């Protein structure tokens, strides 16, 4: 006979002071990186790091868009994946935030119809963001 533990009524407090219910702990451990879609975000779009763990964004622009990055938990190494896809008409210029350090230069975003670009932005847990091209 197998016994399962039921954490749904319990809570845990982490070293950073964040409290999660048992259900949230199970979801955080068993789920993949959540992805949020920003459809036609306008001329500017803020991408915030998750309150804990990693996050992903799918950007589907309909015009030139300047991205900004914010957040990140002190003492926690976090990553953000940003996936952009050009619309049917293409020609949407994506501008990366100035507060991201790109050791190999800022990622180029192709503006041709349907072009895809994926980057990873890392929060170092202290005060800086670093970016790198994954594909595109």
How are the secondary structure elements laid out?
Blueprint: E1 11-13, E2 19-21, H1 22-30, E3 35-39, E4 44-48, E5 55-60, E6 65-70, E7 78-85, E8 94-95, E9 100-101, E10 116-123, E11 129-135
How is this structure best described in words?
With about 140 residues, the protein is mostly beta strands. The protein folds into two domains: about 1-30, no CATH class; about 35-135. It contains one helix and eleven strands. The chain has a six-stranded mixed beta sheet, with no helix packed on it. It has a three-stranded parallel beta sheet with strand order 4-6-8, with no helix packed on it. Strand 1 and strand 2 (about 20) form a beta hairpin. It is globular and about 50 Å long.
Rg, rounded, reads 18 Å
Distance between the termini: 51 Å
Strand line-up of the largest beta sheet: 3-5-7-10-11-9
Mean pLDDT: 88
Order of helices and strands: EEHEEEEEEEEE
């Amino acid at each position: 006979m197998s016994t399962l533990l039921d954490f749904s009524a319990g809570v845990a407090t982490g070293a950073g002071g964040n409290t999660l219910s048992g259900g949230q702990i199970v979801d955080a451990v068993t789920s993949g990186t959540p992805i949020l879609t920003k459809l036609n975000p306008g001329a500017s779009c803020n991408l915030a790091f998750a309150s804990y763990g990693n996050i992903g964004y799918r950007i589907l622009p309909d015009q030139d868009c300047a991205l900004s990055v914010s957040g990140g938990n002190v003492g926690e190494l976090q990553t953000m994946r940003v996936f952009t896809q050009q619309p049917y008409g293409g020609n949407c210029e994506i501008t990366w935030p100035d507060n991201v350090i790109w050791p190999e230069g800022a990622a180029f975003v192709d503006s041709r119809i349907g072009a895809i670009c994926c980057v990873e932005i890392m929060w170092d847990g202290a005060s800086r963001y670093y970016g790198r091209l994954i594909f595109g």
